[in-house]
Amino acid sequence: MSLARLLLLALALLMSSCGKEPFYQEQAYVFGTQVDVSIYGADEAKARQATVAVMHEFQRLHDKLHAWKPSELSSLNAAIARGKTMQVSPELAAMLKNAAQVSARSEGLFNPAIGGLIQTWGFQAEDFQAVLPDAKKIAALVKSNPRMRDLVISHREVRSRNRSVKLDLGGYAKGYALDRAAAILKEQGIHNALINIGGNVMALGTHGTRPWMVGIQHPRRPGPLAVLELRDGEAIGTSGDYQRYFELDGKRYCHLIDPRSGYPVQGVQAVTILVRGEHAGLRSDSNSKPLFVAGTQGWRKVAHNMLLEEALLVDGEGVVHLTAAMQKRLKFTDESTRREVAP
Fold it and tell me: How many angstroms separate the CA atoms of 171 and 286, rounded?
């Protein structure tokens, strides 16, 4: 569900580099977004072989985790709706356990169990219609209170104590795929690469003698809000209201739903976090969502609870709220950008 975009600002420079080391890049469209794999310092045949393996893995996960087309996940949702238990793959069982843990740490603000709300708002579709759903239906879905802790996972068997649970891993799958891509590239002997899945970006190694350079998409204008050097093993993820949304009567409704109200979050344009270490890709995706939902009043507390030291939020007026640690990593493209630094 994370549909933010990060610009890979250095690509034009990379392609025109006069260095002797080769540079290879390939793009595709998976998970409903553009994905890019950029590899530095490997010969073309090796880079192409590694990239093909990564793209195949992306497609496998896309097919496995699709929320509304036939997939293992949609089959599980159908079983839950019938009150049945389903045996799932070990991989999906592990994902659901982890997603439940993330949800608990976020105090339910990250909630992949609200697929029913996402569907009702029309965001489980390729194209969105500018139509408000029935308020009574939204209220009923909120009252049914689907939560990840409703799931009962025993080895490979999954059931739910609440039939209103409808899983949508859109805010989780891209990050999981990012970690899988990094593992595959390493297995293929690739040491320097940049992987971008619709705004979730991970760096491996460096681009020659310097770190990879990326930009954080400005939520209201073409081009970057700020740029930073992304170091080996770091990942950055953005959640924004500017890609999957519709407008009605001058108001924007984005795909990021507040599970407490059942309505799209208002007053936030984007959230970006920077993470490193184990499961950095996964965290870059799933951990940005609860900050977005918490909004300007609650984002800092949620960041603290989720051990996120480097984070920023752009509010509805375009003011950038950010941690001191995040400010140290960024170079804003417009120095007049209004900023409020939190401890």
Answer: 6
Q: Are 291 and 105 in contact (CB under 8 A)?
A: no
Over 50: is that where the pLDDT of 1 sits? Answer: no
Average pLDDT over residues 259-283: 97
What is the DSSP code (8-state) at residue 114?
B
Predicted confidence (pLDDT) per residue in 107-122, tens digit: 999 999 999 999 999 9
Exposure string for 208-220, b = 16+ CB within 10 A, e = fewer = beebbbbbbbbbe
Task: Determine what percent of the chain is predicted with pLDDT higher than 90.
Answer: 90
CA distances from 204 to 23, 26, 145, 261, 281 (A): 14, 16, 40, 39, 12
Q: What is the secondary structure of 236-259 as a DSSP string?
A: EEEEESSSSEEEETTEEEES-B-T
What's at 198, amino acid-wise? Answer: G
Q: Which residue has the tokens 């953005």?
A: 238
Q: How far apart are the first and last CA of the chain?
A: 29
pTM for this prediction: 0.92
